[in-house]
Amino acid sequence: MNGVHDMGGMHGFGKVEPEPDEPVFHAPWEARVIALQRSMVYTGEWNIDMSRSAQEGLPPHVYLGVSYYKRWALGMERNLLSRGLVSEDELAAGRALHPPKAVKRKLTAADISPVLSRGRYGRPAAAPARFKIGDRVRTRNIHPHTHTRLPRYVRGHAGTIERIQGCHVFPDSVVVGKGENPQWLYTVVFSGPDLWGPESDPTLRVSIEAFEPYLEPV
Amino acid sequence: MDCREDPGNNKGRPMSDHDHEHDHDHGSELSEMQLRVRALETVLTEKGYVDPAALDLIIEAYETKIGPHNGARVVAKAWSDPAFRQALLDDATKAVAGLGLVSRVGDHLIAVENTPQRHNMIVCTLCSCYPWEVLGLPPVWYKSAPYRSRAVSDPRGVLADFGVTLPANTEIRVWDSTAETRFIVLPMRPAGTEGWSEERLAALVTRDAMIGTGLARDPKEAAS
């Protein structure tokens, strides 16, 4: 969706201001949020793409107006509610009021290692890759209302296939309930002036990781 | 936009963290969120979906085991060992896994090398994708709107925010992490470090150098 999360090239947000000696967490609840999120994804009820999609579906003023970990918490609540894992009255009461839904698995203290590394998203390929390294491609001018990983700032632009990253779970399919639908993934590189016009730094080159359905041959 | 800060309850938050500004009070978000997350955790625990002891262990791992010290060791080894450097650039997942620093290295970890001709910078314009296994959890600025918006269109301006100026003819290459591939920058080894041990070299490798918003520390400054 063309949401405020898709920030590449936007103006007006000001300077980047790094925080010296930044702690890992700024408040204990932030740590609980990420641990809860990792544990809930482990149950198999939703995946990383659905987490992102839930956050992107927040109203724009909420997305921009809350802290990073609050956004995670709000997205998690959306996913819990939409899947019937919890209900509004339980969140309001701060205790379970209804029987739980059966989940596939539960992370326990006996072994947390599965959630300390990134998930695996590579999948066997059903067909050969359509493009090869060095091919010129153009990103499609698409504007899906659902989750996509094709940022607006590259849509409709020509670039070059630089790397082939294998076949991966396709987020655009997962979030609409159409399954993993694995697709070839490419690193596609664009020139700065092509993306940003004559004012661009002439030395700039920007790449995205593009799924094959986002691309067409030039 | 309102940039109010509550110094009492939000220590050290940069004013530019636009994820955190707007017209609410930070102190109230803190207390509201403490209560809200406690309620959420209680419900999920009582439902049997999560184990609080597992949550504690996850947090401990993020606070102590998973961090940029792992990436610094990878970089120091690449600077010291040409065969490892090549293996890292060929397949960073495999090369880093061989060091045994973290329990499991994620698939599709990619190392990109800075040279006098090319400077690499990593961003996720759509969310906050970051190579946790080698750098830990991302800093607030990496997830903030200023960085996500400008890294792809004005990377030299972003570098200036970090006090970094590169020659005008150095190519700037920005990698937008829009899928489940993850990137780490292999910074240039500083001059004056010939014969240094990997341990000494690792102390020069900053988190920002591995994101591409900084350079490795100057050994003269590091000594002072």
Tally of contiguous helical segments of chain B:
12
In CATH, the topology of the largest domain in chain B is named: Nitrile Hydratase, Chain A
Residue-averaged pLDDT of chain B, rounded? Answer: 89
Mind summarizing the main beta sheet of chain A? 5 strands, antiparallel
- Write the CATH homologous superfamily of the largest domain in chain B: Nitrile hydratase alpha /Thiocyanate hydrolase gamma
Give the count of helical stretches of chain A: 8
Range of helix content of chain A: 25-40%
Largest sheet of chain B: 2 strands, parallel
Please name the CATH topology of the largest domain in chain A: Cyclin A, domain 1
Number of strands of chain A: 5
CATH superfamily of the largest domain in chain A: Nitrile hydratase, beta subunit
The ordered H/E elements of chain A are HHHHHHEEHEHEE
Distance between the termini of chain B: 41 Å
Uncertain segments of chain A are none
What does this structure look like?
- The complex is a heterodimer of chains A (218) and B (224).
- Chain A has eight helices and five strands.
- By secondary structure, chain A is an alpha+beta fold.
- Chain A folds into two domains: 28-116, Cyclin A, domain 1; 136-217, SH3 type barrels (Roll).
- Chain A has a five-stranded antiparallel sheet.
- In chain A, helix 1 packs parallel to helix 4 (68-82) and helix 2 (48-56) packs across helix 4 (68-82).
- Chain B has 224 residues and is mainly alpha-helical.
- Chain B has two domains: 18-50; 66-223, Nitrile hydratase alpha /Thiocyanate hydrolase gamma (Nitrile Hydratase, Chain A), CATH 3.90.330.
- Chain B has twelve helices and four strands.
- In chain B, the strands form two sheets. A two-stranded parallel sheet of chain B has the order 1-4. In chain B, strands 2-3 form a two-stranded parallel sheet.
- Classes of the chains: A alpha+beta (218), B mainly alpha (224).
- Chains A and B meet through helix 1, helix 2, helix 3, helix 4 and helix 5 of A and helix 1, helix 2, helix 7, helix 8 and helix 9 of B.
